[in-house]
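Table S2 (continued). Query chain:
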Amino acid sequence: MARIKKPIYKLLYFRYHNIIKYLMMLGATLFICLVLPKQARFKFEYDKGKVWTQKDLVSPFAFAIQKTPEQLENDRKQLFKSVKPIYRYESLVQKSSIEEFNIALSVQAKQWQLSQTLQKEYTLLGVDLLQRVYEQGVARFLPKYKQLEPYYNFIVVNNGVATEKNTLDVHDIEGAKSVLQNAIEKQEVVVQKQAFYQLISQFVSENLVFDERLTDKLEKEAYTNISPTLGMVQKGELIISDGDIINAETFQKLESLRIAFEGDPLLRASRQWLFIGQLILVGLIVSLLMIFLYLFRKDIFQDHRKLSLILVVICGMILTLSWAIKLNMLNIYFIPYCIVPIIIRILFDTRLALNIHLLVVLIASFWVPNSFEFAFLQIAAGMTAIYSIKKLVRREQFLISALLILSTYIIAYFGILLIKDASFVKIEWTNFIPFAISVLLTLLAYPLIYVFEKLFAITSEITLMELSNTNSTLLRELAFKAPGTFQHSLQVANLAEAAIYKIGGNALLVRAGALYHDIGKMENPQYFIENQNSGINPHDKLTYDKSAQIIIQHVYRGVDIARKNQIPELLIDFIRTHHGNTRVDYFYQSFLKNFPEKSVDEKIFRYPGPIPFTKETAVLMLADSVEAASRSLKNPNEKAITELVDRIIDYKLAQNQLIESDITLKDIQLIKQIFKTMLMSIFHVRISYTLEK
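Corresponding output:
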């Protein structure tokens, strides 16, 4: 019975594990289908100036030919010219201005010491001039009408009677003042001409006042009468034949047919079929993603956390796209599509990033205009984004990547426009602005990566770069408390990084793991030989088994310190595995030699493990052992280093320490060569030609 329980438990776990995955796939598929636009897709792709390669297209129903935006704008301009602005005649302005002028002149006459006769003449002259100006009319000329015509007609409403005038027939404020000044200059009776002009000009105001409310009302009423269509295409009418060039007129008919087709209420009534179609397509795309993960990235396929992150990123981008389509965004290229491949590349790898980007673009292409153009631009830009950060070692690579993505967009779109218009002059350079904004928004990937790391407990290369900085708090503490261990860790990092770079692997990960693999030695640094500089060895006062336990404890303490300082589990794996489950042979052999009569529990002298289970952890174990052993060489020459490296690595193989890691015998030979070459360089040993061969 006991033999049956374990397989049943494993079977139940396997089924439960996969049920969660299926539910995640179904949930993501349903979410994407729910947020996608619910409208039928016009089945033809076309563009102005291209050849129609489909069969003859006959109108399936009658529809109106929609005007182009340019035609509608031209109609609005013509209408704007036909709608004349409305002005109200304000009779009280003239009366009040003359009264105020008379009062001001009587006060001023005393200062000018005018006689009563002269004051009366000034008064008559001023009133006459003001009356003439106001009778002709004083109005404010409107810039928006002057842009169309320097002198425009307008309507003056006076006591319900409308009269049409032109701006040539009336004055503006400055023009009225100029008329007054010229008339005063010709008057011999006026002695103080400039002073009199300054006085009378203060009482020039508009007596023809623009009625903005009424004018806007008339314009809006006129705009509603603009026809959005040019005519009709009847059912059964031939729109275009196979092999014909799509000219401007035919293009507009095709556009009108597409709009009518996608807005057909009969099609909207069949939304359940649209939803089923979306379900099939999106389900296929998500299934392809799962198949890819199962075949090539089983580590992600088995990890619900990582799988959830990928589905969240995909759903988030599709949600953004759907939101933009429903809001009729001015240009669909404002959306930063390249943010998806960048996030996936930083958090996972290049191959997965490219695969997911292609799938997201495929989904989006069904619901965006000019789908082929869209897919071409996004795939090209996405590939550039992925390739530009293939090896992320500096933060400024994000900016370089952004510039390369923008360059790709500009070059690709420039080529598309040349194909479309066959002219350099016709290119509208403002069409490139959305790409620049999209690339700026793509830089949001940096903070989003941080958020995803925290939410899903994933370590990105950005975090590894930060942790690899030797000025980080924990590494500075290691350098202060255990300087010998710190120097050992740096040398191990150099060896391991060079080896993993040669055989293929994550060099940044192995370097960070090497820097932290021995942080457990901070607690009792004097018990480790690299930190003993006083000639006193504390192990001399301890039993062999006690010494072995102190040495082994640095693994446990390293894990504790790392977790306390929130070091990612990905690096903690290096601490746990860098000695595997090997023995502390020096103290074990010393115990056997000195106490042959005593029985010994080998577990006391053995590290807890586990053994390395990735290529990176395996390389670190070998680099750690080789670097530590090389310090004991009394005469570090070529032969001694070669024998040391071969002996250490062969011993690890014999102890089955590498059987869980995906490392090959060819990799082992390359690692040996790298270690030998680097150690000889460190110890300044002349490398012979035989070794190089």
